[in-house]
From TrEMBL:
<feature type="compositionally biased region" description="Acidic residues">
    <location>
        <begin position="1047"/>
        <end position="1059"/>
    </location>
</feature>
<dbReference type="InterPro" id="IPR057860">
    <property type="entry name" value="HEAT_RRP12_N"/>
</dbReference>
<dbReference type="Pfam" id="PF25772">
    <property type="entry name" value="HEAT_RRP12_N"/>
</dbReference>
<feature type="region of interest" description="Disordered">
    <location>
        <begin position="1047"/>
        <end position="1079"/>
    </location>
</feature>
<keyword id="KW-0539">Nucleus</keyword>
<dbReference type="InterPro" id="IPR011989">
    <property type="entry name" value="ARM-like"/>
</dbReference>
<comment type="similarity">
    <text>Belongs to the RRP12 family.</text>
</comment>
<dbReference type="Pfam" id="PF08161">
    <property type="entry name" value="RRP12_HEAT"/>
</dbReference>
<feature type="region of interest" description="Disordered">
    <location>
        <begin position="1091"/>
        <end position="1115"/>
    </location>
</feature>
<feature type="compositionally biased region" description="Basic residues">
    <location>
        <begin position="1186"/>
        <end position="1200"/>
    </location>
</feature>
<dbReference type="GO" id="GO:0005634">
    <property type="term" value="C:nucleus"/>
</dbReference>
<protein>
    <submittedName>
        <fullName>CIC11C00000004737</fullName>
    </submittedName>
</protein>
<dbReference type="InterPro" id="IPR012978">
    <property type="entry name" value="HEAT_RRP12"/>
</dbReference>
<feature type="compositionally biased region" description="Basic and acidic residues">
    <location>
        <begin position="1103"/>
        <end position="1115"/>
    </location>
</feature>
<feature type="region of interest" description="Disordered">
    <location>
        <begin position="1150"/>
        <end position="1200"/>
    </location>
</feature>
<dbReference type="InterPro" id="IPR052087">
    <property type="entry name" value="RRP12"/>
</dbReference>
<feature type="domain" description="RRP12 HEAT">
    <location>
        <begin position="355"/>
        <end position="656"/>
    </location>
</feature>
Amino acid sequence: MADNNPDGGVSLDVFDMEDKLAKIRSQVTSKLDNQRNLALILNAVEENINEQNNEKTPVAYFVSFLALLEQSVGDNGVSDGKVAAAAAYFLDLVLPFTPAPLLKQKFGQILTRLAPVLTSPDAEAALVRSSVGSLESLLLAQDNQQWSSTGNVSPRRALVGMLELSFDPRPKVRKRAQEAVHKILANPPPSPSPVHIAAVLCGELSLKRLVMLIENAPKSKKHSNNKESVSAIIHALQLISAITSANSWPPSQVEALCDVLLDVSRTSDQYLVGAAFSAFDGLFSSMSNDIDVEKFTRVLDIIFELKPPVDDAHLAASWLAVVANGIQSFAKLLPKTCLAKIQSIFPIVSEFLISESKDIYVSASQCLIAIVSESIPDDYLLQPSATNGVTAEIYEEVDEAITYIAEFIEKELLSIKFQHATKEILELITASVLKFRKRSNPDFLNILESVGQWRSNEESNFPYNKEAEDMIAACISTMGPEAVLGSLPLNLTGSNKNEPGRAWMLPILRDNVRFASLGYYKQNILPLVTFFGEKIEASSNKESMHIKIFETIVDQIWSLFPHFADLPTDLISAFSDDFAASLADLLYSKVELRVTICHALRLMVESNLAYSQGALSDDLMIQEDFPFSECEKNLAYLATKSSNILSVLFNVFSSTMPESRGFVLETIDTYLQIIPDADLEVTFNKVCGLLKKAMDDEAAENEKPRKDQPPKLSVTMMDLVVAMAKYVPSSSYNALLSIFSTTVNLQNDALMQKRSYRIINKLNESERGQQIISQFIAELEKVFVDTIGTTHTSARASRLAALEVVVNMLPSTDLHFIPSILQEVIMSTKDVNERSREASYSLLIQIGHKMAQGGVIENSKVAGFDANAEATEASLTEYFTMVSAGLAAQSQHMISATITAISCLVYEFKDQMPQELLIEIASTVELFLTHNSREIAKSAIGFVKVEVLSLPEDLVRANLKELLTKLMKWSHEHKGHFKSKVKHIVERLIRKFGIEAVEEAIPEEDKKLVANIKKTRARAKKKEAAAEESDNKQGKKFMSAYEEAVYDSESDDSGDEQEDQNKKSRRGKGADRYILDTGDEPLNLLDRQTLTHISSSKPKKFTKSDMKEAKMKMKDGKIVVREDDDEDLLSKGSGIDAYLDAVKQAPVRGQKNKLKFKKTKDEEDWSDSEDEKPRKLKSKADKRSRVTKPKQKFKARKKL
């Protein structure tokens, strides 16, 4: 409630009210009557306030709207519904901002006017809803003294009326009343008691109403009033939820409420059960303060006193759910007290696991899982420390709780009487281990051993192997592999005759080992590779089953290595020089192990880097065992080894084929991140030396490598230079840029040119690399300008990407670089390589942004320009002038590329360009529509499409006649899809401007195209209407309402034309259904498998003759079945058919050796006829023809 500001200013709440009123004022022209009516009434009230020379304060509005309400509501009821609704609406809006003393003073007057509305059965829902909101604000303003009064016009009587409205059949009214009750009770007036004075009243009335509704509810589900009775009970439960969630339920009524709610939970109606649980949740969630401890404890005691029988199918599951929610809420309020209760709660809930009902024992296991997961805070699992708040006493209590749970599971739940719930108990054990983590060791080791024996006993055929493996996996990830393998040894060598072999644990280890001891793997698991390797070598039959098993085990043991290297706890001691040397030897000698070893080497660095950057900052237990200081020590240690590791990786990289190098390059990049600058400089200099030597040697030999050989050494070394580029220290910048400037000039070596340009892109990936580019930007500009003519075609995409980096960092003083490279960029838009085209579009846009930033272009510095050329100001207009210069070129290819570039730029910058410039560009490009060159015309048509889609309507409309006159020149050209493109543009114009405008502007001889489009659209609409009518008659059939909602959709774009009229018509939806013969077995219509016996096609018994006639043929030794859809494809003809048709339609020599054409209607001629053309009958040749892949169309920029 807002009070007047004592300092004389305006309260912030008043500004909030003004915002709401301003929104209503703006709706004076709304098309909705109710919105317009509100705006008009507000204007009238404000005019009245202004006439009386009053300020528009909350009090002024309140007085005005209250007077309006008094006029429209009399003692006999509502006299003017619209005015009353508006007055109540504005009172609901204004009352929260009205001073509380005024509302206390006017309480009786306001309530007297609201009462007829609230009690009238004929009042509209909107009016009642606003009145409830007004009453809510009015009651919130009353003090404790007024709430204590018992007169006829008192807050208590008003609240009783609001409680009655909480059962109103109108959903919005009911919800608004329940929300109002919640808010009133959640905001009690100042008093000695923290609970609202009316809480007891609300609790008693709502509980009485609920009990009455339950007693009067019909016992039979088939009773006609059952639905209304259930709805009324749900409404009562919703009101109770509103009261309990406001922490206002009277303590004396808690036991009665729990009893009734549990009684409601026994019903089979899921909505009633859900509403009862919601009331319980409100009761639990509201008790969040220390003052609620006693009440919460009492509630829990009551719930446990109401424990149902173990086999009560209705109430047991509901009771368990309530217990789980209650314990979770209690643990948040009093974790220590909840921890002490675990030992008494666990046996009570576990009793329900004895039940033979699956629903009950599953609910019991879920309840136990919730108790274990939520009753002990994660912080309590830490070691005692002054920083985390865990005392020695808490640590001991947690230890006792974990020991108790483990012993209870081991001695009770794993006994024979719980055998039917083994799956659920295993899930409970898994959840417990995941919760307690390292604190599970050693209490859960005996359980682990028992479960491991169940899983290892292959003869018993244990049915819950997956759950057992999940439990073992949880132990591995929390206790560590060392503890698990101590209880369940792998025993792969068979050294222990009393233990079974557990090779099945290797994949589980692989998927769950992390943050483990690398030394343990090195000493206890990796030696098994040698053992089985010797067995394999000693075998004479390498293809035997045993040898294959041994090889699989060896592969699985090696697959563990990367996971033991993922944030190892003992990296410094385990990753010794000897171990690193043995890995290096394996990288050289065992090609099949390279991926695994490189993955492990990479994870050693990446896991420590990620941890140091806060990847596991929320995991306090890991930080306790592995502080950030240890991680920093690991990285420092790996940095000392990085130089030698990189040398090995460089050698492996050099001997690996290009298509298999990716993983090695990723590992190299990882170690380049941590290598010291001094070592990196030495390594970089070595690579540079090898590169120079390789280039010199290859220049002398001048031999090309074969396809089965690794690439030239110079290319390999260049790959390494590119990888190191963004990490090299400042002392190596000159050498790096020297390599770049040398290799970009290798005109006959495309591979080297590609990699050379990638250096710039790599540098751009790091902040330090960007500083290098900025520092040497002038030198780079010169290199790029000098190498325009020497760039190999296959290196064009890399060059354009590098140019984009340079342009992005180009200073405003070096804008003369742009005209130097612009022609090359424009020409690249017509490149055969798609990557080059995409890069050229991106670069054109980047140049546009740079030019839009402004600056001076010194044309005297542009290559080929006069030394005295005047400087120009950089702008988008100047940029388009520069690009448009290409339209005056002598080459058709250059003109076409220029038009394509202009299309891209117009599409991107249309909103930033002056309209005069757009008109000039459009008129200029449209001139090329009349050019005889198909290449130029194709680009010009592409521009027209951009123009139609992007430019302002008035601009296109003004030029429509001239545009269509030029465009229609190509409407009869079949080659290069000209005809279809023109038709598509005309269709777009019709959608945009209407068919009359286009028909008026199009040349007379081409109006049959518009007629064709018009009839095509009409035909499409007619077919769609017929299809819809057919659908309505047949009816849609879906398995469920959900499927109908998801899959049953109609096209909203009814105006779109169908360009291809030869498509197959839609199949009827109401097809017949046939039941297949099931032999002597009668068809069970209640069986789900019955659906498999129902077919949409008429069943037929197949004979040998039918099999001979089946559409099967042999192809490459395989049976190929051709379906009906293939016939449709074949009917469309192939490339050979098109050739034959062209031959048939070619001119023939007639009398006097004159050429004569056959008079056949062309398929694509514009026809005014509405009749569809008859389809050509399929011939045998058609059936044998193959469906050819259509030629790939020209791809421009996707946006275009």
